[in-house]
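TASK: fixed-backbone design
INPUT:
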């Protein structure tokens, strides 16, 4: 039996998701909640990266995680077993979350949560097309995927404010050019913040979390 709360998401009844997403951001601002939407391909290291982020941010903020998948509770269990609040969101076959689904999921987290991290459904297409109401979107590109993905999936990199290039410790085994990947990302989004990391070893994660912590403090302090 699953040991985490599983929320079966219902399809949004609102036609204008962008409008609802803006409304959700206003609600989160009033409640003092920062919402981070993490997107990537399957196998890029989302859960491992999120666990590294949680380890560093949980000393400063009250954190909670929403794990979105078509089925299973594998990732939510990992987060919960590491000692952090987590809920599993089942999308019923949909390849993305929208604002109303995000609102449903947050109801399963502790009321005093300050930072909500969503691990969105794994792919580089659908999640970028739907505004979840997040304050920040972060995309993870892993070395084994190749340095050309920002050129092939432009919308994902245009919609995000930060990009993580994960598994840099694996670069010797793959034909991956870090400078080329960074240039391709900036071609799509010149303002993108880029963080090369190894989520497995923790290399580079401190710089990423310093950036995230600054963004969270700024959001929580703004009136």
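OUTPUT:
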């Amino acid at each position: 039996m699953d040991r985490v709360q599983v929320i079966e998401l219902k399809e949004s009844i609102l036609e204008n998701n962008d409008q609802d997403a803006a409304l959700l951001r206003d609600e989160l601002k009033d409640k003092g909640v920062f919402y981070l939407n993490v997107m990537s391909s399957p196998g890029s290291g989302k859960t491992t990266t999120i666990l590294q982020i949680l380890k560093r941010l949980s000393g400063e903020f009250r954190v909670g995680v929403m794990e979105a998948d078509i089925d299973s509770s594998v990732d939510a269990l990992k987060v919960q077993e590491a000692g952090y609040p987590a809920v599993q969101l089942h999308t019923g076959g949909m390849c993305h979350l929208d604002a109303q689904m995000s609102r449903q999921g947050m109801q399963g987290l502790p009321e005093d949560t300050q930072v909500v991290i969503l691990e969105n459904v794994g792919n580089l297409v659908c999640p970028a097309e739907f505004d979840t109401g997040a304050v920040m979107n972060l995309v993870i590109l892993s070395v084994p995927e190749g340095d050309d993905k920002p050129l092939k999936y432009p919308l994902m990199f245009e919609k995000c404010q930060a990009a993580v290039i994960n598994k840099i410790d694996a670069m010797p085994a793959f034909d991956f050019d870090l400078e080329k990947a960074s240039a391709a990302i900036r071609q799509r989004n010149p303002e993108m913040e880029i963080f090369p990391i190894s989520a497995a070893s923790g290399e580079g994660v401190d710089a990423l979390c310093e950036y995230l912590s600054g963004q969270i403090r700024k959001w929580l302090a703004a009136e």
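COMMENT: Strands lie at 6-8, 34-40, 63-69, 86-90, 115-119, 136-142, 162-166, 193-196.
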